[in-house]
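Hi everyone,

Forwarding the result from last night's run.
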Amino acid sequence: MFMAMTSLCKLPRSRRDGFIIPDLPIEEGEEIREVFNQAKLAMIQLVTPATPENRINTIAKHSTGFLYASLSRALLVAMRGFPKK
């Protein structure tokens, strides 16, 4: 993934301002964050209603641009499983 992101960062500036990174744990993103910072790109990360508040704060501190707040029930089902009712 790192090589793909590095390649995307080299696209002409007029074609992108940042990327949404939905599946990158914040603890594993330092290398990509550095590439994004050098390319002056926003690194947009995902939070959901299931994300604990302290985790949202950590993600927000390491994100640039904005946080993508997903309210998709499908995503929550994938994370938690189907409700028992």
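The radius of gyration is 15 Å.

Cheers,
N.
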